[in-house]
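Take the subject:
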Amino acid sequence: MYAAATESLIKQAREIKEEELQRFCGRIFKQLHTKDVSGDTVDSLQRLNLIVSATKYARELPSDLVMKLQTVLRSSSCPEQLQVLSSSIIRESSPPSVHSLCSDPSHDSRTFSYVASVVLTQVSHILESRLSDGQISRHTLPILSKMITAYPEILTDDQVNLVSRKLVDWLRYASMQQGASMSSGGFFSGPRTRQPAPLTEVDGVVVGNFFTVLCVGQSYTEDQWMNMYTFSMIKTLGFGVCCNVLCCGADDRSEVDSSVMSMVSATSSSSRLLPPKERLREKAFEYCQRLIEQSDRKALKKTDTELQKACIIESVSIMDIICGEDPSYVYRAFPCIKALYGRLNGDLTYARALLPIAQFYLNHSETAAVDSEAVFCQLFSHCPAEQFNEPMLAFEFVQFCLLNASVLQDRVANYRQSFPNLLKFLAWNSSGLIEEFVELLPSLIAPDTAIELLHTILDLPCLAAALDLQQRYMTLQTTDQPMRCCCRSVAACLDAFRQPLYRGLFLYILRPEAGTGDTIDRLKMLHEILADMSESPRVVRCAQVVPVLLQVYFNTVTQKADEKMMNQMLLVLLERNSLLYNIKTFNVEVQKVFSTHLQALCRLHPPLIVDQSREILEFASSPANIYSKEDFYTHVVWVIGEYLSVSYDPRCTVELITSFFESLEAVLFEITQVRQSASPPSFSPRLVTVLMTTLAKLATRSQDLIPRVSLCLSKMRTFARSAPVMACYSEEDTEEIITRAHELINLLKLPNVAQFVLAPSAGGDSPRWHRDTNASLPQGMRAVSGLLHRHSSFLPT
């Protein structure tokens, strides 16, 4: 009885008239537009699903209903029951537009699974049909590629085999004749069809082997178009999926099975015995070999020459993937790759093609026991130096380094030595490559070249200016244009660029690799020569990325630097803060970075102050440094007061403390002198308060100095209330100076307490000092406040 009822429902579904079906679809369309989905809507969808599933042929539904069902299918907020029914209805009806379904692949796994079931069903029908070599297949491949890119494991094994078989057919068995083209037969006659002509190679020779994208014709057949589509997407369609499937089953195949499979794949005549995935790999390998062979032909058209370059890049990349999946192909590929490298090595127009070749060597040279040193020497020495002005090459070169940074550090000796060349890409294309170099820079830092790299980063704007001059000079040389075509400022720089006197400066700044020295003695002269280039847009943009790179550099180096390197870096900070290319805001921004990391270096290794005491004392004792680099000078004074202590370094003697105290005392006295003709101070109140505090700290460590600092501090009120200072500083600033001086004077009246407050022990930042109420710094401050209160009888007279 149940079977009879079921049979009756199916019969009714099959016999429903087209007009009745359209009315029923219209009612469902209205139900789906209501806010609340009722049981009637679900019942109607179930009935529609039965109708479209009951017949062998696909029923055509109204387009507006199909679009609505697709919307429901893609909506993650819809009930799952509606999504299941929508998916089933769309699968069983006439093929929908799979473009709209794949326009925005959802990241919701449930929703995507239903969308994928519809798309893959339609794609499978298309690929299995005899008419699959038509226009619809051309549109299907990009959609399938898009879905595989988003979810690589979406295809089943059967679907992977189906795709592999179709790709092999399209890739290898395209027709060898041009497509039929219609030509006009004259004014009084209709169009006539020309006989198909044979395809030719890019050099005009008739094609003698199978069809590839480098075969030339006036028009192409559908299977030839599918050949081109397949090659352009084979990395995704063929190896993006097959790789996952093969990896899943790789553990199940023994080495013996693998070797047998390799022997079979090595023979083209027996390739039909291979499973679909391995056969696709074999045919793709042969296709790439043929493209590399075709790329050696002299193209008749410039566009074909560019196509040859693109095909070389793609072919080598595909062969690299194939060899990665099956190492037996390495021995077949290397003779072809070595011959290709020998042919392209000296031609700069093929520089981009050298990158996939280098990638191939990097991945497989050890397997084939091939020496790759010459390849990477050529790559890192010539390409950046001669092709730095090619934006696409610059981007791809840096991406290559990023992708292989760890391997390059371990296996390519000259990788880290080549940072002067690599930074030419950044100097010329600074705005486009800054993010990539922020990520790449840590891999370029090595102990033996870290200081030279720091100097090179600081000289990056000079490098941009020198590259600009080099390009202009080469252009003038090749075109024989007079120098007067340049503006006067650039002409002066070009003239200096040509002079033998300055040749050494430019040779150093344009050097291809590290190791010739950390920096040069005549750096100030170089800045003067390039002064007229400081407002060049390229130089200004390059200067803007230097502070960013410095932050990355210091953050990386301070994690692994030893004592020797930290001492060298401190000397660079002291030396280079006054030796920077004079660009608007450049010096200020670099000095801010210097100030921040000066504190970090001294916090990590406090003995630096004693190690470099002579250089630090020389810098701090010069008031001229205040007016040109106040922020950095203030931080130098602060680290002196913070870390020049015997608690950090037992070498810190009273004599050393006294020498620093006397120098800073002289500086404070000089900048705070009150004269009738004195001009308003050009430094901030912050510098004054830091100097006062540092002198007080040093005095607590050598208490014989307390009377001297107290006398100095007592004069601060007169300074702060003088007319020039009042005219320059706000009321809050002057009160801050007076208050700080008053607090320090009162604190120094109790030297032992002052030493506790101003110079806590090295463990003062440990949690105990802030949590333990008996030992915490706030507890000590409260005790001091009580002692120093104006009404306290403990105050000394």
